[in-house]
# Entry
Amino acid sequence: MTVTYSSKVANATFFGFHRLLLKWRGSIYKLLYREFIVFAVLYTAISLVYRLLLTGVQKRYFEKLSIYCDRYAEQIPVTFVLGFMTTDERKLFNHLKSPHLKYWVPFIWFGNLATKARNEGRIRDSVDLQSLMTEMNRYRSW
# Structure
């Protein structure tokens, strides 16, 4: 069923636009609000503990731990997948410029290769491809 919002968009004011976004059935806010609330609560809790409860030495230790985790966060999901890459693929991965973490690149690479294998007939039917992609998404969610 298609729902039109054109009359409401045309009459929306600048400050009333947020109400229109909340009415939208396919809104990204409705999709992500639970995760955002959990993130905001956890961030606030950690921030309050850091600012109010930790001593100076404990704050320095927390900062060192944060830097350590940040340094290795990019490598955690990728290191396993990099073992299956050829030398040329690894060079392409290493030279990829991105302002964001590159953990998603092997998943896109895998999906493209699986689709190519399906098109070439190496994966016999779409059910097998779907099963393969479901397993990849399950691994990715871990």
Summary: The chain has two domains: 1-75, 82-141.
